[in-house]
């Protein structure tokens, strides 16, 4: 079982920056094929892939809509995954979810087995 707790959401003006954290706990750290992802969901819209990272190798994959603006990273020692968001736009407003699964770098939400509770990010124009 894996538990995920997100933090760091809030309100920011367009063009600003915000960092999200996802603290992970459980018995997954010996699973070399584990991966983490960030997804987001705006009101009335489907859940959207943002970025993913391979826990053991550290390689990443991001959606085109956030490339060059968002960076996913992880700290193995702290069991934490991060999402640094720069140059934020109003259309980035959504609830952001951290997820973990056994298909590293997958952009498909149904391939993730564990989810956090979500954290709200609001970007004002």
Question: Can you walk me through this structure?
Answer:
With 125 residues, the protein is mainly β. Helix content is 0%, strand content 51%. β7 and β8 form a beta hairpin. It is globular. The mean pLDDT is 94.
The dominant shape is: globular
What share of the residues does DSSP label as strand, in percent? Answer: over 45%
Find the count of extended strands (DSSP E, 2+ residues).
Answer: 11
Radius of gyration: 13 Å
State the helix count.
0
Helix and strand succession?
A: EEEEEEEEEEE
Amount of helix: under 10%
Layout of helices and strands, plus pairs?
Blueprint: E1 2-7, E2 10-13, E3 18-26, E4 35-41, E5 48-54, E6 60-62, E7 70-75, E8 80-85, E9 94-101, E10 114-115, E11 119-124
Parallel strand pairs: 2-11
Antiparallel strand pairs: 1-3, 3-8, 4-5, 4-9, 5-6, 7-8, 9-10, 9-11
